[in-house]
């Protein structure tokens, strides 16, 4: 039996906040797609791992859950970070793994917040 989308997203956020690229990659199917809409989609589990490893190395990121919604095999995460950035992510699951993720957040606000922090 697989975890619900809500429970999996909670675990995904814990891995994200730990900055653990290997652990977070365990939530994705081999041919998953991660599409942060201001960038080209990242396709494949290993490419997604490489993306997270690069981002965790470059930035201090924290995801605070505001809301999680479920609808069938979809989960939606509304989030914020301590610097004031807000966004949302849509996760589609199959057999308990993420097969598609789409994220919406403001790149300029993220860049400005990261510049201020460093």
TrEMBL record:
What region holds the SnoaL-like domain?
A: 11-100
Q: Which InterPro entries match?
A: NTF2-like_dom_sf, SnoaL-like
Instruction: List the SUPFAM superfamilies.
Output: NTF2-like
Q: Which Pfam families match?
A: SnoaL_2
Q: Which domain of life is it from?
A: Bacteria
Protein name (Swiss-Prot/TrEMBL): SnoaL-like domain-containing protein
Species = Kordiimonas sediminis
